[in-house]
Amino acid sequence: QVQLVESGGGLVQAGRSLRLSCVAPRSIYSVSTMGWYRQAPGQQRELVAQISRGGSTNYPDSVKGRFTISRDNEKNTVYLQMNSLQREDTAVYYCNAHNWLRDYWGQGTQVTVSS
Question: How far apart are CA 62 and CA 39, in angstroms?
Answer without folding.
Answer: 14
